[in-house]
């Protein structure tokens, strides 16, 4: 069962302990006669066989409890109130959305004005003259396009 190099181990076998059945004290069975003897019915099938049995009363459904009548006016008032609240909530959400959208557009316009105004300020206040070419200042001398200016 085990390979040669594997030490063998002792195997313990546990047997289940049977559980004794609980003591049942049953009451003696007393046959009870029905209050009335049911009638026996016989039916002749089309092939000539006769089937005999007890007639069973059909199961009757429980009587339906009558529901309290709800006024149509009360239902209409309740539905109208729910509809009114839904419309008010929708208008509130719409108003909030329009206000947020207006603020967002205002912020976009302000951002565009700041960026455009900054660009204009750089153009106006930037260094004037000396358009084009590279200017290098070395010891109070200015070299521009390979021409010396003192």
Outline the structure in words.
It is a single chain. The protein is of the alpha+beta class and 150 residues long. It has one helix at 72-125; strands spanning 40-44, 50-54, 135-138, 141-144, 147-149. A 3-stranded antiparallel β-sheet has the order 3-4-5, with no helix packed on it. The protein has a two-stranded antiparallel sheet with strand order 1-2. The chain is flat and about 125 Å long. 0% of the residues are buried.
Are there runs of 5+ residues with pLDDT below 50, and where? none
- Given helix and strand content, the structural type is alpha+beta
Q: Total strand count, please? A: 5
Separate helix tally: 1
Name the strands of the widest sheet in spatial order.
Answer: 3-4-5
On the 0 to 100 scale, the average pLDDT is 79
Main sheet summary: 3 strands, antiparallel
The CA-CA distance between the termini, in Å, is 109 Å
Helix-strand blueprint:
Elements: E1 40-44, E2 50-54, H1 72-125, E3 135-138, E4 141-144, E5 147-149
Antiparallel strand pairs: 1-2, 3-4, 4-5
Keyphrases for this structure?
single chain, 150 residues, alpha+beta, 3-stranded antiparallel sheet, two-stranded antiparallel ribbon, 36% helix, 14% strand
């Amino acid at each position: 069962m085990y390979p040669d190099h594997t030490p063998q181990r002792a195997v313990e076998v546990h047997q289940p302990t049977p559980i004794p059945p609980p003591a049942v004290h049953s009451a003696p069975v007393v046959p009870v006669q029905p209050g009335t003897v049911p009638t026996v019915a016989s039916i002749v099938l089309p092939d000539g066989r006769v089937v005999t049995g007890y007639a069973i009363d059909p199961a009757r459904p429980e009587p339906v409890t009558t529901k309290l009548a709800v006024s149509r006016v009360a239902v209409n008032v309740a539905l109208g109130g729910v509809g009114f609240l839904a419309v008010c909530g929708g208008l509130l959400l719409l108003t909030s959305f329009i206000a947020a959208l207006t603020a967002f557009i205002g912020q976009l316009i302000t951002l565009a004005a700041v960026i455009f105004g900054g660009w204009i300020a750089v153009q106006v206040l930037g260094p004037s003259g000396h358009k084009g070419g590279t200017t290098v200042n070395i010891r109070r001398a200015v070299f521009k396009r390979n021409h010396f200016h003192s």
